[in-house]
């Protein structure tokens, strides 16, 4: 998944700011796509994972800090939307309560919400991607990813589903969806 300068020309035009929320399991390619969409939109990309890691460095671990990290990112996104900027959120968004933050934020800010759910339809490839990451506390193992998959609630509502196992660049389709 690589971008080119031509990707930027496909960016949505006019219409004002929007909130783009990426969702999907670790290792499916959502952070890569979120970064590319952010570049195409000239929009800040706000990932939840570094906020969770920062909270953990201060001893805040467990389920509640995970939601607190989502809340912190939602607060930052609200500021950016208030400045008239589009915002791209990069998060697993595994449960309805996390996803609800983005719906509520879009409504408060008066901006459209576009959800992009990313998955890797080839489990062997997904596992390869997860296991190819640098082994450290920042990235889940394949076994931890499977546990997260078991707890991943089905997404209900409008969204674009992107399969990164397909050998085509998904960016043009994502940008078309955002228009």
Could you give the distance between the termini? 21 Å
Share of residues in strands? 5-15%
Number of domains: 1
Q: Which homologous superfamily in CATH is the superfamily?
A: P-loop containing nucleotide triphosphate hydrolases
- CATH C-level name: Alpha Beta
Give the CA-based shape.
Answer: globular
Please give the share of residues in helix.
40-55%
How large, in whole angstroms, is the Cα Rg? 16 Å
Task: Tell me the number of strands.
Answer: 5
InterPro entries: P-loop_NTPase (IPR027417)
Keywords: Kinase, Transferase
GO molecular function: kinase activity
Pfam families: AAA_33
Structure, described:
It is globular and about 40 Å long. The chain is 49% helix and 13% strand. The model is unreliable at 1-13 (pLDDT under 50). The protein has one domain (17-178): P-loop containing nucleotide triphosphate hydrolases (Rossmann fold, 3-Layer(aba) Sandwich). It has helices at 5-9, 30-41, 49-57, 63-82, 96-109, 123-132, 142-150, 171-178, and strands spanning 19-23, 45-47, 87-90, 113-119, 160-163. It contains 8 helices and 5 strands. The protein is α/β, with parallel strands linked by helices and 179 residues long. Helix 3 (49-57) crosses helix 4. The protein has a 5-stranded parallel β-sheet with strand order 2-3-1-4-5, with helices on both faces.
């Amino acid at each position: 998944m690589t971008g080119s300068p031509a990707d930027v020309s496909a960016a949505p035009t006019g219409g004002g700011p929007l909130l783009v929320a990426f969702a999907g399991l670790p290792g499916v390619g959502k952070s890569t796509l979120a970064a590319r969409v952010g570049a195409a939109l000239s929009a800040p990309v706000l990932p939840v994972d570094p906020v969770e890691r920062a909270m953990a460095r201060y001893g805040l671990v467990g389920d509640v800090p995970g939601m607190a990290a989502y809340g912190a990112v939602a607060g930052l996104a609200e500021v950016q939307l208030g400045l008239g900027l589009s915002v791209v959120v990069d998060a697993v968004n595994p449960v309805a309560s996390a996803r609800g933050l983005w719906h509520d934020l879009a409504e408060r800010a008066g901006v459209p919400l576009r959800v992009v759910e990313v998955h890797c339809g080839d489990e062997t490839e997904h596992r390869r991607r997860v296991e190819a990451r640098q082994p450290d506390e920042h990235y889940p193992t394949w076994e931890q990813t499977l546990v997260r998959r078991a707890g991943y609630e089905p997404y209900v509502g409008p969204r674009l589903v992107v399969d990164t196992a397909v050998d085509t660049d998904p960016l043009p389709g994502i940008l078309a969806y955002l228009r």
